[in-house]
Design a protein that fits this description.
- The chain is mainly alpha-helical and about 160 residues long.
- The protein has one domain (about 1-130).
- The chain is about 85% helix and about 0% strand.
- The protein has helices at about 1-5, 5-35, 40-70, 80-100, 105-155, 160.
- Helix 2 runs antiparallel to helix 3 (about 40-70), helix 3 (about 40-70) packs antiparallel against helix 4 and helix 4 runs antiparallel to helix 5 (about 105-155).
């Protein structure tokens, strides 16, 4: 109920698909650079944009988790998703640091971006599976409640009462 009554659920529901679109566009630009050698600036800019959307969804996700579960991170219900989110953040942040410092070649940076994106895909799948499980549980609870309500309101006809 808390999940559905907080505005942060809507924020996450809007940001998640936005981040996914940014990811797809960036992935295309990174792969384009790696295969053709063209569009390096666009590829770098797209990874920076993807990282910015990741930071935004992580900050708002922490607020959501605090409102719903009372903890900013590592609430038991999302512990492993949060652990893996730290790996996603670390790889994206490593990309920004390497880009800013020139620590890696352009091709190595794009490889790092792909590694960050692979972890993002796994993490997104974790959250989607968790959301799906919550929705299925919610539906099952509703069906059970409806069945209990209708059973309580219908007359109890037993063999004894039918005689």
């Amino acid at each position: 109920m808390r999940r559905d009554n907080t505005r942060w659920t809507l924020v996450q529901g809007v940001l998640a698909p936005v981040q996914f679109v940014v990811f797809l566009l960036s992935l295309g630009l990174v792969v384009r650079y790696l295969t053709t050698g063209e569009g390096l600036a666009w590829a770098h800019a797209s990874v920076v944009a993807k990282t910015a959307t990741l930071y935004l969804i992580m900050v708002t996700g922490c607020i959501w988790e605090k409102v719903v579960f009372g903890r900013y991170l590592f609430a038991p219900a999302f512990y492993w998703e949060d652990v893996f989110s730290m790996a996603v953040l670390a790889l994206h942040t490593a990309y920004l640091v390497a880009l800013a410092t020139g620590a890696l070649s352009d091709r190595a940076l794009m490889g790092l971006a792909l590694a960050a994106y692979a972890t993002y895909v796994v993490n997104a799948a974790q959250f989607l599976l968790k959301l799906r499980a919550a929705r299925l549980q919610e539906t099952a609870s509703r069906v059970h409640a409806d069945a209990s309500t209708s059973a309580a309101s219908s007359p109890n006809l037993s063999v004894e009462g039918a005689r």
